[in-house]
Amino acid sequence: MNDNSSLKAALSRRTVLKATAAAAAGAGGMVPGLQSAVWAQGSDKPEKEEVRIGFIPLTDCASVVMASVLGFDRKYGVKIVPTKETSWAGVRDKLVNGELDMAHVLYGLIYGVHLGVSGPKKDMAVLMSLNNNGQAITLSKKLADKGAVDGASLAKVMAADRRDYTFAQTFPTGTHAMWLYYWLASAGINPFKDAKVITVPPPQMVANMRVGNMDGFCVGEPWNHRAIMDGIGITAVTSQEVWKDHPEKTLGTTADFVRKYPNTCRAVIAAVLEASKWIDAGLQNKLKMAETVAAKSYINTSVDAINQRILGRYQNGLGKTWDDPNHMKFFNDGAVNFPYLSDGMWFLTQHKRWGLIKEHPDYLAVARQVNQIDLYKEAAAAAKVSVPTQVMRSSKLIDGVVWDGKDPAKYADGFKVKVG
Length: 420
Hints:
Layout: H1 3-26, H2 34-38, E1 50-55, H3 62-69, H4 72-75, E2 79-84, H5 88-97, E3 102-106, H6 107-114, E4 124-129, E5 135-140, H7 141-145, H8 151-160, E6 166-169, H9 175-186, E7 196-199, H10 205-210, E8 216-220, H11 223-229, E9 233-238, H12 239-242, E10 249-254, H13 255-260, H14 262-279, H15 283-293, H16 303-307, E11 313-315, E12 321-323, H17 341-353, H18 363-370, H19 373-382, E13 395-396, E14 402-403, H20 408-413
Parallel strand pairs: 1-2, 1-3, 6-7, 6-8
Antiparallel strand pairs: 3-10, 4-10, 5-8, 5-9, 11-12, 13-14
GO cellular component, one term: endomembrane system
Subcellular location: Endomembrane system
Main location: membrane
């Protein structure tokens, strides 16, 4: 992009942002102080142009990687530097100490850090949701050979053959822990009384199952499909079967970074939105994405381990195959990316359910602190992405219970299987 086109683009974005701000103010929806914050420097030029974004080798890091590889970042005046990390604990620490500016990160990790659970307390921010769906729970082939192939049969095997059962998740307050606990509980298994739960970094799941360190794990792709390819595990349930179109990874940062670099945040959100839209635009784009992220510098696995499930082509490792319309989605006309307050609140209800927090928080107030709704809307306007009219959404999960964000304390207390 030459200087003239860059200037036109900047002016165009500024016009859009001004129009958005004016419309919001006219509708009485402007948050006090927001307009002055937006225009404090008289420009939407990113305050920090090089942005270090951490990622874990997982398929759902793709929109951050492709925003950099395809140059969507430069369109918005920033340079994304994808930074490969080895564990979620490492991502947490580097976000908190400022070594990373942002990260592809577990939704529940951001909320856990914000409340001081599983690490030092730090005010955090969710800039956008990166993907829906695309995780799974794998049971070991040894367990499957004994008849444990889904939740109900797992409960029967555990009742008949009493021993210590070990399941792995990737971070104590993260999404995989919550999907694992929710699924086990839906089958009548209390993850804290009936089993042992350990934390293992995603890229190490398959290797740990191979040497018998666990009976099952919950993790993102491609590691569930990799376990099938290696003949050591079977897919017992996908995360989209636990919660269709569930929130998963976010673009996370600290509240300090948002306050200091709001224009940079908007630019990165807009760039990742465009990359998300590009990925979901068609088969060829997804295949190109798979080839890109499979490389050693990103996920470091074969393309075959990635490209089947991103197209919705599933197998469970026991001969069953199916086309899943609810496979991993990065955009879905912007529905994926909006940081719904009810999504953030849900993780708090599960943290309370499982004793990770002792008292009911002010669920809505915390979600409003963390999820940067206004920032997201402004970036979405710049990227010409539609936004929903409501900040809450309603979903029915695998146990038939509906979550709509209306009474989070009652919801959290209403589960039969819980801690305390």
